[in-house]
Amino acid sequence: MSRLAATLILISVFFLVAAGLVMLASTSAWANGLDQPQLLLTKQVGITLGASLTGCLLHLIKPEVLRRFTPWLFIAGIFLLFLCYIPGVSVSVNGASRWVKLPAIPQFQPSEIGKIVALMALAAYYAKNPSVIRTWWKGIVFPGGIFAIPVFLIFFEKDMDTAMALSVAGLALMICVGAKARFLIPIVMTGMVLGSMVIMKDETRRKRIDAWMQLEQNPKEHQDVNRQQFRSLLAFGNGGPEGVGLGNGIEKHGYLPEAHTDFIFPVIGEELGLYFTLGILFCYVLFGVGGFLISMNTPEIYGRALAIGLTMMILLPALINIGVTIGSLPNAGLPLPFVSYGGTSLLFSIWTVALLLGINRQNKIVASKESEGYIPQPTVMRL
Fold first, then answer.
1. Where are the domains of the chain?
2. Per-residue pLDDT reduced to its tens digit, 313-370
3. 254-275: per-residue pLDDT in tens?
4. Among 279, 354, 275, 367, which Cα is nearest to 314's?
5. DSSP code of 256?
6. Measuring CA to CA, which of 16, 61, 280, 317 is 20 to 30 A from 287?
């Protein structure tokens, strides 16, 4: 089972990253200019190699070691998220302060770090306190309050979609460890109501929803707001089942904004066709199956909970991104994991894979020892 899970994840990630690099080669010149046509591709290849090499080392770290250092990692993640609110350090892109620029360090997105350490902290809490999982205050309210700190910091960066995806991943983690549904349902309902109220008070979000609801009509008053989604649908229609051929797409020539990042999926549909986009979807399905197998095969709470949370943090942004590009969801601004251009996103997506494979590796070691007659004794690690 462990070997199957690792195989599914590695194969799916390999093809997704490869597809992203191929499409970046096709869109890089139009995104960066003809003076340096392959600069973005070169950067992405470098990040892929660096992330893969460091990921190989990261997957060797035992989950219990990660658990021991989780409080410090959580504090570091919160500190980085706070930097997004400091003038002169934070960088605003399209009205959202999601980026940070520090001396001698390339610009990066702290939310990518924050969402991983948030899930690690939640998993570590339940692993340390398994007896309180099915209680209200210590099982839901207290850990939920700690988890809400990075969620709200990300939310008020105007990165609502990442905050929502992280919230759903945290909910999945709670369900995985056995939290009571009658405690979770009121929280979910309250979150949905509050989220709807915030969206309706946010003029930009409200305009996006209005434009999305009238997407096919494309009236002049919504033309600027829904341009990306409208051009995205044109790209899919132009590509048809088999596509117009790699490099022959039209929409990337300035018609479709962010064709190399958030809207790279329509470019794939236009140039390589419906069949290839279905292959991309299938890769995410394989990744999800592999992640769920790792979680199901993990005996200890920390690894099992973290595996389900990390898996969801890859699948949810992918689902939202694809839903936006095909017009099923309002414009969100989330990249397609492993495929879209973006150093921070790719780096931490690959490191997420490394963490999953590290949990899976420990499962194989435990299974091997049990087959030899060794039965590990339960231990309690103090945070």
1. 2-369
2. 999 999 999 999 998 888 888 899 999 998 899 999 999 999 999 999 998 887 766 6
3. 888 888 899 999 999 999 999 9
4. 354
5. S
6. 61
